[in-house]
Amino acid sequence: GDGTDPPAPERVLFPPTFSVSEIKNKQRRHFMFLRWKQQQRKEKLALKKKRRKEREALGDKAPPKAIPKTIENQRVYDETTVDPNDEEVAFDEATDEFAPYFNRQTVPKILITTSDRPRGRTVRFCEQLATVIPNSHVYYRRGLALKRIIPQCIARDFTDLIVINEDRKIPNGLVLSHLPDGPTAHFRMSSVRLRKEIKRKGKEPTEHVPEVILNNFTTRLGHSIGRMFAALFPHDPQFIGRQVATFHNQRDYIFFRFHRYIFKSEKKVGIQELGPRFTLKLRSLQKGTFDSKFGEYEWIHKRREMDTSRRKFHL
């Protein structure tokens, strides 16, 4: 108190080499981790504000914004990436199995079926999927083999067959076969959400023909898969229904969403998800209709051989 005492040292919470993970008490460790994360966010926000002020001060002389590196924009180049002006690709698409649909010679008619004796969740998913795809019909298998179903579908003028497989009462696979000549795609299905499980969902979808959006199907294989999905829907969407079905490919995962858009004003548009939603991962593409024993495969996903790089994609 008389001024002769040395100044008190600054209080240090942790030594420079100390780690939060070394704290033995779980509650204390969690508390300190949250404080550390909060400090990180504050520093990041302060740096962001500083850079924005610097850019405003420089005006037109400010350097261009740096593009962040992502797995998508660092993608390994694929030689099968399609050029929109490629004459060979245009010729192939004009003569492939989907050409009658794109030439408006056929009208989509879809049969949706399941694995043998489906459970309640798979049944509800098929019923909701039928409300998304116009002119689709749901039939449940009773021990009937797919090889026997396909000739009956062709005789009844169905253009596509969708099979929903399940495991432990959960839908986990989808087989899409274009009739009468194929091809047939096998997908692994995950993240299935029915309508009642979606938060802030809109009212039940109407019977209007939806618009279809296909994103990021850039390779020859991706084009084939995108054309398979497009061939499920009639050509002329009814815009008055304001419904849109989206197949979005990202890192070879195909995310399906079904939305209704709402005009809030002349400039603002909102969207409501109607459901269902699910994610697909291509496992194989087979020539012709379904034949697990003697079928000829165009492409098979071999995980250990193909997934050597996180930046290598096939669709």
UniProtKB/TrEMBL annotation:
Keywords: Ribosome biogenesis, rRNA processing. It is found in: Nucleus, Nucleolus. Residues 108-291 form the Brix domain. Residues 54-63 have a biased composition (Basic and acidic residues). InterPro entries: Brix (IPR007109), IMP4/RPF1 (IPR044281). SMART domains: Brix. Residues 44-66 are annotated as: Disordered. Gene3D superfamilies: Probable brix-domain ribosomal biogenesis protein. It comes from the Eukaryota. GO terms for cellular component: nucleolus; preribosome, large subunit precursor. GO terms for biological process: maturation of 5.8S rRNA; maturation of LSU-rRNA. One of its GO terms (molecular function) is rRNA primary transcript binding. It holds the Pfam family Brix. May be required for ribosome biogenesis. This is Ribosome production factor 1. It comes from Mohoua ochrocephala.
